[in-house]
Amino acid sequence: MKSNIFFKIFTIIVTFIIGYFLYEHINILKNEYLKRENQKNLFLEKIDKTYKERDKEFYKSN
């Protein structure tokens, strides 16, 4: 009887530990994804700005 209660408590504790471990890794991956999205958006804005400047210079010279 005591071993059955111990096994249930042990299972619950192990489940919480695994859940916390997965939760932390999900947060890390989410932060990495958001950082990469931000870098991608900054890069695309920079390219868009460069093309607009070149476009203006092209029409000025022609």
Helix and strand layout, with pairings?
Layout lengths: L1 H60 L1
**What fraction strand?**
under 5%
Shape descriptor reads rod-shaped
Straight-line distance between termini: 91 Å
What percentage of residues falls in helices of 4 or more residues? over 70%
Structural class: mainly alpha
Instruction: Compute the number of strand runs.
Output: 0
Helix-strand topology string: H
Number of helices: 1
- Biggest beta-sheet profile: none
Describe the structure.
The protein is 97% helix and 0% strand. The protein is mainly alpha-helical. The chain is rod-shaped. The model has no long low-confidence stretch (mean pLDDT 88).
List keywords for this structure.
62 residues; mainly alpha; rod-shaped
Give the structure's gist in a few sentences.
Helix content is 97%, strand content 0%. The chain has one helix and no strands.
